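Long-time lurker, first post. I've been practising inverse folding by hand and with some scripts of my own, and I keep getting stuck on stretches where the structure tokens seem ambiguous. Below is the full token string for one chain I'm working on. Before anyone asks, I'm not after the true native sequence, just a reasonable design that respects the backbone. If someone could post their per-position residues I'd love to compare against what I wrote down in my notebook.
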């Protein structure tokens, strides 16, 4: 019994030191909340998309690339953000680590390069992709912001038939750093808009 209590105590200490974004927007955020790591998120998105793609993608075939686009506002495909550009970069980096070819694009009719918004596939019209390039998939992503809650959806699309071959969605409560990327900041007093993780050990210990 004593060892179990000690283990629980050390578990709590580790969480207090490390922080966890799962506790953001909860009553435990002040003690256990943490930042969202965009590098880790980008890696997770790439892993999720490639592992669930049907038909499977072919790694280590440099002649067959994956095209990536900036994550854009789901309400306005012409609008991106610092977060959208960073996330595209981190997802693309993970694709390369997994053995896929990620080419730089120079497609005047399909890509718009903007100092503010990065590269975007205009109107998501993948029929305009240059047919001379051998592309096995196109990664597109959208996001939506509602108060402090960030919704992200990422998809892999077959450039030939436009079928979605893989898709995943994610939901986060944004920390101060991520809010700043959207030029937002948290309110001083917030209601508990998001419930604590259900069934967690910490809930049982604190309540």
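-- Answer (accepted) --
I ran through it position by position. Result:
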């Amino acid at each position: 019994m004593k060892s179990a209590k000690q283990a629980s105590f050390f578990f709590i200490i580790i969480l207090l030191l490390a922080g966890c974004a799962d506790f953001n927007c909860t009553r435990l955020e002040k003690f256990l909340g943490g930042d969202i790591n965009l590098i880790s998120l980008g890696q997770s998105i790439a892993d999720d998309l490639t592992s669930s793609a049907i038909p499977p993608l072919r790694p280590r075939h440099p002649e067959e690339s994956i095209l990536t686009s900036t994550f854009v506002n789901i309400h306005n495909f012409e609008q991106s953000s610092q977060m959208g550009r960073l996330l595209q970069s981190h997802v693309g980096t993970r694709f390369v680590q997994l053995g896929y070819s990620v080419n730089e694009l120079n497609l005047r009719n399909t890509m718009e390069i903007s100092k503010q918004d990065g590269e975007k596939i205009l109107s998501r019209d993948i029929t305009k992709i240059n047919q001379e390039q051998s592309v096995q998939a196109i990664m597109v992503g959208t996001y939506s912001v509602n108060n402090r809650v960030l919704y992200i959806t990422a998809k892999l699309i077959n450039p030939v038939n436009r079928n979605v071959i893989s898709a995943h969605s994610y939901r986060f409560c944004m920390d101060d750093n991520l809010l700043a990327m959207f030029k937002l900041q948290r309110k001083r007093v917030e209601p508990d808009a998001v419930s604590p993780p259900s069934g967690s050990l910490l809930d049982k210990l604190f309540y």
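A couple of notes from the structure itself: The chain has six helices and seven strands. Helices lie at 2-18, 29-32, 38-52, 82-97, 176-181, 201-206. Happy to go over any region you disagree with.
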